[in-house]
Design brief:
With 715 residues, this protein is α+β, with helices and mostly antiparallel strands. Helix content is 33%, strand content 31%. Strands 3-2-1-4-10-11 form a six-stranded mixed beta sheet. Strands 12, 13, 14, 17, 23 and 24 form a six-stranded mixed beta sheet that branches.
Amino acid sequence: MAGRIRVGIDVGGTFTHAVAINSEAMKLVGRVKVPTTHRAAEGVALGIIEALKKLLSEANIAPEDVGFIAHSTTQATNALLEGDVASVGIISMGAGLNAGIASGVSKLGKIELAPDKYLTTYHEFINSGKPITREMVTSAVDRLVKQGAKAIAVSEAFAVDDSKNEEFVVGIVREMNLPATAGHEVSQLYGYKVRTRTAVINASMLPKMIESADMTESSVRDAGITAPVMIMRSDGGVMDIAAMRKRPILTMLSGPAAGVAAAMMFLRISDGIFLEVGGTSTDISAISNGRAKIKSAEIGGHRVYMRTLDVRTVGVAGGSLPRVKDGKLFDIGPRSAHIAGLHYSSFEEPIPNATVKLIKPMADDPDDYVMIQDATGERKQCVTPTCASNLLNLVPEDNCAKGNLASVQSAMAALAAHVNSQPSEAATDMLRLAAKKCIPVVQALIKDHKLDPDLVNLIGGGGGAAAIVPFVAQEMNLRFQIAEHADVISAIGVGLALIRETIERQVVNPTDDDILRIRQEAHASVEKMGADPASIEVHIEIDTRTSVVRATACGATSMTKDSEVKQASNSEERKVLVAESMRVTAEQVKLDFDGKFFQVYSSDKVESRLMGLFKHHLRCVRVLDQAGGIRLQFRNAAFRDCTVDAADRTIGSLIEEFSEWGDAGKVIPDMVLLAGAKIIDLSGLLDSTQVLALARAEMESMPRDAQVVAIARLN
């Protein structure tokens, strides 16, 4: 088992979970939890270390068995929310006519991070129109430090075109043993003020994040583990510690990102809405064709050059408390059992002759939250969506949320009596109130990311998933599933996440060479961090409005190739799975391509339009991997298989046949290739020459007679 164990550690608000995964069988072989150490002198790093030691001991894992270790962290997010960051000195630079403008826009003053939480900055300007000397830099740094700066951000106008001045200055600052960030290190996009702001916020996190990273890495090495230590990013991938030391800002929101990574890597969800349900809140995000949906980040209402998962949080979850006014249930949450210091009735012994008392969970809260107590007021519990779901038999038998039905019945009877209802009606009302907070967010994600509602499933993760997801799915008439090991799904996601990097450049009318150069830079970045070159996939996006070319590379370490997953199902089970996904019978499903790594299934459908006056013929397509998981779903698509030698002609003919003409000219279909073990996403490109150039680059190392499937997504 040497080197075959992947360790994932997820730092949550209350607990830090650690899991061990056998990468060959993709099975959980160990799991532990310890309290998250927010207030320890070592910060959350102490909890990470404690969880790791406990996991190795209890699961009997030898250090040499660990081939991969990664953790998420709340440190960056908490630092911003609490204003617990270092003050930053800004060294801005500019030359010629840009000097005055650069000096003015880089004076950022106090940056709001969260309500009433600010980052203090100080400012020095160096005119880069003449040679910059070491003395000029050290003098500027000394002045900033005297004012109170604990870290330095270096930013020059147009450094994305030539970064040598930023590199020179930041090198001197680091020689002075001060944490420092250069603007070109955090972004290669134009927009001097936004790039400077991003560099400043990144620099403010450096002292504590580097200290925490050093402590974690040292403890891992002391434990005898030689595997590289990775940190979860906010976009669902991981990066090595060297990358984190330069850009800790990328770890923001890494907790919610971990759950989505698990949905894609462990559950193998290709299209769906992922709801990670905790005790107090639910994080909701979208996945389409195996990719998590991403958005640009904001901090304190200000745009920064950073990409994060589009995670939307609602204040309702498995432990939310119901609220009563005028003898009626009218709301649930945002306060939870955890905040009120109460235990769920689901996990307690029944209270005889229980009654309701309305309370204030916190001093400034209204006194309309429900608590259950006995006649003496000594025994206290609460009813929550978890309790309601248990009463309505919505919690699976083997789920962590399965509770003591007798206790739930006693508590729910007390609530029902208080609101003049029946227990089952009160439970349904509670879940309906909770669902009403989640449903608009699910609908908005489907709309904003143009997801096909027919392909969307709800996937529940987190310990409270069974309390929320089944009822939301029932209300929306959607299919759902509760994740295996839902309560530690985020830790699993951390352990299985791919190494990831995104390279962005602003290029007006990019040529094929421009696109290939940016692609290669992204490919090289993840390879440098330890990704197996054979596993690396690069997705290119071109934003014509902003002239941004974005290359996102993902790759696995050599121990996590898909070929090692031993979960293949038989042909009949696959057909049934595909039929259920397409909402047709198994007899209507055809196996069109049966390759070494992928199978392609299809089914023909007829869709009525305009009150039945017109018929639209569709070809539904599903792509399954060798483990029997659906990797791609298409409501309507055309595809052809060929060899690498014939790929240019095949791709070109599909594009020509299915391109459409409109006011904007020729619009090509989104293209996807199945090439060897890779899924090559060529969607979002502007013309066939770009598609063909990238396809050639992706397939250049493949045998010329290797099989390829080209798929065109149709309307």
